[in-house]
Amino acid sequence: xxxxxxxxTEISVVEKEDVTLDCVYETRDTTYYLFWYKxxxxxxxxxxxxxxxxxxxxxxxxxxxxxxxxxxxxxxFTITASQVVDxxxxxxxxxxxxxxxxxxxxxxxxxxxxxxx
Amino acid sequence: DTEVTQTPKHLVMGxxxxxxxxxxxxxxxRAMYWYKQKAKKPPELMFVYSYEKLSINESVPSRFSPECPxxxxxxLHLHALQPEDSAxxxxxxxxxxxxxxxxxxxxxxxxxxx
Lengths: 117, 114
Description:
Order of helices and strands of chain A: EEEEEEEEEEEE
Shape of chain A: globular
Mean pLDDT of chain B: 94
Number of helices of chain B: 0
Distance between the termini of chain B: 36 Å
Structural class of chain B: mainly beta
Largest sheet of chain B: 7 strands, mixed
Helix content of chain B: under 10%
Distance between the termini of chain A: 41 Å
Strand content of chain A: over 45%
Radius of gyration of chain B: 13 Å
Oligomer: heterodimer
Largest interface: A-B, 26 and 24 residues
Radius of gyration of chain A: 14 Å
Helix content of chain A: under 10%
Number of strands of chain A: 12
Order of helices and strands of chain B: EEEEEEEEEEE
Strand content of chain B: over 45%
C-alpha cells in the first residue's frame, strides 16, 4: 500500500521569508514517481514538478526548489523569498509503476500555506 | 496550451434533478479523470478513461455516470444525488494513464445538492 504524509496542516509565514513543506512517502515499489501540485483558492490544481525514483538530483525552478532523499523517503519543497501569490494548498502525491496498470495518484492531505503581507 | 476547461463553474441541484458536468481538453491527451474533493481534503479519484474507454471505476455509486464521447470530452451525468455529494468536482487529463504522466486539472465545478 502507498501512503503520503504531509504532517504540516497549516503554515503561515511573513512575506519574503523562506518556507519548506515536508512530504514523506511509503511504497514497496522500486519504480515510482513523486509530484507536487498547488491548489490556489480558485480550486484548480496546478502541476509543479515530477520526480522519478531513480533521480535523486535536487531541482530548482526560480524561487522553488525540491529536495528528494530516498534514504529518508522524503520529497520536500522549499519556496524562497515567499510572496502573497504563493498562498495556496500544496499537495504531494505518489504514483507507483506496475505491470498491471491501474496506476493511481496517492495524494497527501495537503499543507495550507498562508503568506502574510 | 495546458488548459482543461470545465462547465459549469457552480451548480446547485435538488435531489431529484438530473444534470451533467462537462470537461474538455485540447492537448491531445488520451487519459481523462474525474475526481471529487471535499473541503480541506485531497482529491479522491472517481473514474479514469483511457483512449475513450473506462479503465478505472473506484466503486462510485451509480448515481454518478461518466461518459467519454470523444478523446477531448468527458462528461459526468448526475442523477438523484444526496446532500453529501456536495463537493468540488475536478476533471484532469494526461498523455496516458500510466502513473508517470503528470495530470493537468481543470478549475472544477462546485456542486451543491439541496
